[in-house]
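Q: Structure tokens for this one, please.
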Amino acid sequence: MTLAGIVFAQLANVFACRSDRLSVFQVGWFTNPLILWGIAIELTLLAVISYTPTGNAIFGTRPLPPWIFGPLILGALVLLMAEEGRKLIANRLTQRFASRIVQKAGP
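A: Here is the predicted structure, written as tokens:
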């Protein structure tokens, strides 16, 4: 479960950190095919490690129960929304600071 938690957190993180100022909704979810390929490979490896007898034997894992995906997805969404909130606050502070500089410079 820890490995799956890390994988899902990194899935959210890769989308959240594509830009330090633009929202993932502005950048777009599917604009970078390499990220999508990386996610597909990462999820495939997680499935192999978790759900195949060979993966279970090599890594000492067991199949994940289906209910665990609810908390994993929720945690990833919380991480993504926290970063989106940080970007929103940072952008508003930057705009305020820039408008104060413009006002002080004057005509």
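A few notes: The radius of gyration is 20 Å. The mean pLDDT is 88.
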